[in-house]
Design brief:
The chain is α/β, with parallel strands linked by helices and 419 residues long. 45% of the residues lie in helices and 11% in strands. A hairpin with a 6-residue loop joins strand 10 and strand 11. This is NodB homology domain-containing protein.
Length: 419
């Protein structure tokens, strides 16, 4: 039998529980409102509705262009210092008369850190058509916006000042160890004139899964994120996902080609590893196939042989192009069908962006102009001399005829007197 005290306690408990429940509901609605406000302020990216090329491209797994019209882009992003212990790999694989289907040389991207870098060698690669990008000065964990700003600015200056390369040519950044700083990182890079970042990973479920296309951060990073990702709007700034490869056993993802749990330890397995990932893109959504790599992986002879074979086999396809990241983004800004790709200037041999080659072209043009001028002068002088000779000869002939006629008349006067 309930007492008045029991009833009072029960009523008090019910009121307290009700208040708590109401408070929880209010907090939930507030959190929901705040979350919705963030999403609504950023919006949902809809291509050709609120996002337009060449300044904006939505994150997607299926490009709007018909798959059969898309060239399969392959790019290489090599990290760390450039020096004699790694340069022979670049020379052997990419500077040995390897050309794209349009007849122009292939190109790669070098993400350069400062320590041990030979900047004279770096300039040679720029003049060969490689893209130079920034991988910090110190190669330490760079996890704040201020650190990104300091390291990116200093190394960009190092590359420009030590090689003579125009500052505006250096536009790409990769974080050491892929340690990122979220939105402050992008703000710093934007302020310094960078146009893309390639430090965040996307892992597909398996070999049959599609990879993400590069996109602009107008609507933030929309993919799964296991690091500090930029969630705010950064209009026109490109984010290139590091689409993780799948190991040769088709079990685990590998952000870098040389960082796999299941490592290939012979040429055939290494070749299979490369080509299985290639064909998953080539026969899939045709998203750019990126090799994120440290050159020391090629110190193993079987890896180097496997890569050489893979490059040759990929280039046997007339719709596959090995381009640097900046060239790849030029296509993203201006998607061009395979039928027109040989006339796509950013992938062509001309105009040449290399300063050394530009000097050579200017020299050749000057030589041609001077040659034409000399020929014109020579022809003019020869023509004048010829005309003078002809004139003299004509005058001589006319004078001779007059003299001859006079002589005849004189002879007639002496032999036949008049009257």
């Amino acid at each position: 039998m309930s007492t008045d005290l029991d009833i009072t306690v029960h009523a008090t408990t019910v009121r307290a529980t009700t208040k708590t429940a109401m408070l929880v509901h209010v907090m939930c609605y507030c959190l929901l409102f705040l979350g919705t406000s963030v999403v609504m302020s950023r919006g949902v990216c809809l291509q050709n509705v609120n996002c337009f090329l060449p300044k904006c491209f939505c994150s997607t797994f299926q490009h709007l262009m018909k798959r059969s019209d898309i060239p399969q882009m392959v790019y290489f992003g090599f990290d760390d210092a450039v020096h004699g212990q790694v340069s022979h790999h670049y020379d052997y694989l990419f500077l040995s008369n390897v050309t794209n289907p349009n007849g122009c040389p292939v190109s790669i991207t070098l993400f350069v850190s400062d320590t041990y870098t030979d900047y004279t060698m770096l300039k040679k690669y720029y003049e060969a058509g490689f893209e130079l990008a920034v991988h910090s000065v110190s190669h330490q964990n760079i996890d704040t916006g201020s650190k990104v700003r300091q390291e990116a600015e200093e190394q960009k200056n190092n590359i420009a000042n030590h090689t003579g390369i125009p500052m505006e040519e250096v536009v790409g950044w990769r974080s050491p160890y892929l340690v990122t700083a979220g939105d402050p990182q992008i703000y710093a890079l934007e302020d310094l004139g960078f146009t893309y970042d390639i430090s965040l990973i996307y892992r597909r479920a398996g070999m049959d899964g599609d990879d993400a296309w590069p996109f602009t951060l107008d609507y933030g990073w929309p993919l799964p994120c296991d690091k500090i990702c930029p969630m705010e709007s950064h209009k026109g700034f490109w984010q290139i996902p590091i689409n993780a490869m799948i190991d040769y056993k088709h079990q685990f993802p590998c952000a870098f080609i040389d960082h796999c749990y299941n490592t290939a330890w012979n040429e055939e397995d290494a070749y299979k590893y490369i080509m299985d990932n290639f064909y998953s893109r080539y026969n899939g959504n045709r998203s750019p196939y990126g090799f994120h790599i440290h050159a020391v992986w090629l110190n193993y002879a079987f890896n180097k042989r496997a890569m050489e074979r893979a490059i040759k086999d990929m280039m046997d396809h007339d719709d596959v192009y090995i381009v640097n990241i900046k060239q790849m983004l030029e296509w993203m800004k201006n998607p061009t069908k395979l039928s027109d790709i040989k006339r796509f200037d950013p992938w062509g041999c001309w105009p040449i962006q290399s300063s050394g080659k530009i000097v050579l072209i200017v020299f050749i043009n000057i030589f041609i102009i001077v040659g034409i001028a000399c020929m014109t002068i020579c022809v003019y002088r020869h023509k004048s001399k010829l005309l003078k000779t002809i004139s003299n000869k004509v005058g001589y002939i006319m004078l001779t005829d007059i003299e001859r006629q006079a002589h005849v008349e004189e002879s007639d006067g002496e032999g036949h007197p008049q009257g």
